[in-house]
Amino acid sequence: MEERLELLFSPLRIGRLTLKNRVVMPPMNTNFSDENGAVTSQVIEYFARRAKGGAGLIVVDATSIAPEVKKHGLQPMLYDERFVPGYAKLVEKIHRYGAKASIEIIHYGSETTYPAGPKVSASNVTGLGGVEVHPLTREEISEIEDQFVYTAYLAKLAGFDAVTFHGTHGYLIAQFLSPLYNKRQDEYGGNLENRLRFLQEIIEKTKQKLGDEYPIMVRISTDEYMEGGRTIDETVAMAKALERMGVAAIDLSCAVPNSYFFSIAPGTLPGMKGLQRENAKAIKAEINIPVIVAGGIRDPYIAEEFLEAGVADLIALGRAQIADPDFVNKSIAGRTEEIRPCLSCLTCFYSLREKHCLHCAVNPEAGREYELQVPPERADGKRLVVIGGGPAGMEAARTAAKRGYQVTLFEKKCRLGGTLYPASMPAGKEDMRKLIAWYEGEMERNLITVMRDAYYTGELDQVIKPDVLINATGADFSRTISGSDLPNVLTAIEALTYPELVGERVVVIGGGNTGCETAEFFSDGAREVRIKRVRNFAGELEYDLLPIANGKSRQVTIVEFFPTVGNQLGGMHKPIMDLKLATGGVRIMTSTKVMQIYEDGRIDVEGVVTGEKEVLCADTIILAGGMSSAAGVWDTEAEQVFSIGDCRAIGKIDSATYDGYFTAREI
After folding, report:
1. Looking at the domain assignment, is residue 30 inside a domain?
2. CATH number of the domain that residue 543 is part of
3. Among residues 57, 481, 642, which one has the least CA distance to residue 294?
């Protein structure tokens, strides 16, 4: 075992339950259930893979107590005995690898989003806006308590080692606990003792049904990061009360739906990694039951330090184990450099927002484990050439090499990574460089020959004689505007790769993701935005601006043809980007097209709707809109030729890794 990680991989008891280590796979929605909410092979293999990878405790994602309570299209359900056999199969598979299993039990309350779900809560309060909420009567409260208990009973029947009541993120239990949502004047509202009553009665009834020895865990927010919501002082008192109620462990998260980026912070939001540290430590100091903490922890050594410092007893590593299900086993073996890094890009979260199944930007197998049970045919001795060292090309190379192909990768630049390198330059995207380093390690570990500063030619084709050629030459921003070929015009890729070439006055043409990130990078170099709290359900943010030593800001303008900028940014990224552009003083010109660029830096622009003309002046013009694939035609005698990644279809990193993986796997 890696000696520096002794605590993380030491056993721990939760009530009568002994875990083999301190790593928890926390509950995260997946959309893997069937249309009735039952367990599928996709569910089983996804969780089993994390158990096989070494996690000590697997907590199955939020499972509803009633058919009308849904927040996701394929919401897991456990309100009837017909669901039990499927969950029993899941638990059996998790146990096969020495992990223990809990299940998170939920009612979404006023945050239920599907039409079939009634909006009920402690009071008529919701962050959804314009939605009427029915405050629960005492009789209805009792009925819902009984539903929680019955689901817990079914979970025990299925073989789960514990249950976890979902009391965080602004859902029904949390709504009763929070003064933000709970405006009741009866015994279920007002002071903390009253607001705890709903949860206390659920716990008491569950213990009566399942026995005192069966472990009950509760997930709560340390801070709701919302004006009027619960803060750490009250949460400490609440944790002490939960211990007195006989709860076996407390699982700490944070936030409500309208402040949810504190819980699943995107990498572009500074100061969020390990956000829960001080709050968790304050809670742990006051109670004697185990504390689980989540929140942006991606590194096993940081997890170990949390345990050593008395922050928590167990560490929830969620997205880290989506990105690499072998996170634990690699850490135990001292092979931490082999852990595929999570980018904190929230592709996993946004895939659910798009009504899809969960998937991962860097791990194309995540959520597809059930499809991949049969290994692909070996290709020992066959030769394969990859042209292009971006994410699609590198993923194809490593996947092919694992099948036995003799792989040679050609990259025309001096470094691997393709657009990952310039993409890593904007604030909060530094983890892209970790991914490049991981892929470079994979090239070495899989004995792939890498040719840098090299072009693939017909002569080389005659020497190598590949059986398969994969074209992964990517794409670049188009130079179609008159004057866009002038020396003072750079593409976003060039500008981010060589920022020293960019002058004081900058015009970015294109206000999509790349344009916004490029504008932010060049405008906001002297200050950092730290978000402190959300002020209201409308999403108004309270923040600080912190100076950056030796930072440099430029005067930046974005010119965008469409009416708004950042349309492709996800819901967690968009408000943060809007704030950063505003605090960075970026001028945003929407519904505006660029007519002409001149050598002296003048730019003619014209309103799309108004026809109004204006002349902008810049030292550097950056092209960040409209990409063209670098398809390429290769002189090759390879029997099979494939194009993947951006050279086939412009996309994001998840489509590139997916394309590379499955092309190489299925050749």
Report:
1. yes
2. 3.50.50.60
3. 57
Residue with token string 């590949």: 466
pLDDT in tens, 297-322: 999 999 999 999 999 999 999 999 99
Note if 171 is an active site residue.
yes
> DSSP 3-state assignment of 435?
helix
Could you tell me if 464 and 532 lie in one domain?
no
* 160 touches 104 (CB < 8 A): no
User: Looking at the DSSP assignment, which residues form a beta bridge with residue 36?
Assistant: none
Looking at the structure, tell me whether residues 225 and 246 fall in a common domain: yes
Q: What is the pTM of this model?
A: 0.95
For residue 462, the enclosing domain spans 383-474+630-665
**Cα(343)–Cα(322) distance, integer angstroms:** 11
pLDDT tens sequence across 519-573? 999 997 767 888 899 999 988 999 888 887 777 789 999 999 999 999 888 888 8
The answer to whether residues 202 and 317 belong to one domain is yes
Instruction: Please give the Cα distance from 395 to 68 (Å, whole number).
Output: 42
Q: Which residue, 105, 96, 98, 95, is CA-closest to 37?
A: 105
How far is Cα 167 from Cα 174, in angstroms, rounded to an integer? 5
Amino acid letter, residue 446: N
Distance between CA atoms of 563 and 649, rounded to whole angstroms? 25
| CA neighbours closer than 13 Å in the CB half-sphere of residue 214 | 23
| Residue 469: Cβ within 10 Å count | 22
Both 293 and 405 in one domain: the answer is no
- Give the number of domains in the chain: 3
User: Which is catalytic among the residues 46, 79, 171, 439?
Assistant: 171
